[in-house]
Design goal:
rod-shaped, Mug135-like C-terminal domain-containing protein, 202 residues, Mug135-like_C, mainly alpha, 2 domains
C-alpha cells in the first residue's frame, strides 16, 4: 500500500503520492519536501509548519527510503541506521510536546486564578450574601469545599455557624497564616475576607 504524503499547516505544496514501491524520483521529492518543511519551520513565520509537521515529513522520507531498500533486501546496518536517524527527530518532537503541555498547564492555572479573583470581586459586592449568595472560592488544588464535605459559605451566617472542625479545615485548605493565639472567631473573619466578604461575621 503506497505511503501518503503528510500535510503541513504551512501551506507548502505536497509532492505527488509515491508509487509502490517508491521510485528514485519519489525519494528525491520526499527529501525536497522535508527540507522545505524544516526550512519554513525554522524561519518561524506566521502559520509556519509545526515541529510535528517537520517530524512527519522526515519520517515520510525515511519510510520511502526503507520501502525502496526493502525491495532489494535492506542491508543489516540499515535498521539501526534508520533508528539513529529518527532518534533526534523523535527526541525533538517529545521536547516540543512537553513544552506545549507545560504551556497548557500554565494557561489553565492562570485561568483558575483569574476565575477565583473574579468570584472574590463578586463576593465583595454581595454584602452579607443574604440576598445574593457568595460564589464558591476553590482551594489551591482546584478542589471545592463540597469535595471535602465542608458546608458551603453562601453568606455571613454560614461562616458564623462554622464549627471548630470546619473552621480549621477551611483555614488549612485556604493556607491562611496561622498563629497559636488566633481564636475561631478571628479565623472566621479571615476566612470571610479571603473569599471576598467585607462584612463582620461574628
Amino acid at each position: 500500500m503506497p505511503v501518503l504524503v503528510p500535510a503541513n499547516q504551512g501551506g507548502i505544496a505536497l509532492p505527488p503520492n509515491p508509487t509502490n514501491p517508491p521510485s528514485p524520483q519519489d525519494i528525491l521529492s520526499a527529501k525536497q519536501y522535508s527540507t522545505k518543511v524544516y526550512t519554513a519551520h525554522e524561519n518561524g513565520s506566521t502559520n509556519s509548519p509545526t515541529a510535528l509537521d517537520v517530524a512527519e515529513a522526515e519520517k515520510y522520507f525515511y519510510t520511502l527510503v526503507a520501502s525502496s531498500a526493502a525491495e532489494v533486501a535492506a542491508p543489516p546496518w540499515f535498521g539501526p541506521a534508520l533508528a539513529d536517524a529518527l532518534a533526534p527527530i523523535n527526541q525533538n518532537l517529545t521536547q516540543n510536546l512537553n513544552r506545549i503541555h507545560q504551556r497548557l498547564d500554565n494557561l489553565e492555572a492562570g485561568q483558575r486564578a483569574l476565575r477565583s479573583d473574579l468570584d472574590k470581586a463578586y463576593n465583595t459586592t454581595a454584602g452579607h450574601g443574604l440576598r445574593y449568595p457568595y460564589r464558591v472560592i476553590k482551594f489551591h488544588d482546584d478542589s471545592s469545599p463540597v469535595d471535602h464535605n465542608l458546608p458551603p459559605l453562601r453568606n455571613v451566617n454560614d461562616i458564623n455557624l462554622l464549627s471548630h472542625v470546619h473552621v480549621t479545615a477551611y483555614f488549612n485548605h485556604y493556607a491562611l497564616p496561622n498563629t497559636p493565639d488566633l481564636s475561631d472567631d478571628r479565623k472566621k473573619q479571615m476566612i470571610a475576607n479571603h473569599i471576598g466578604c467585607r462584612e463582620p461575621v461574628v
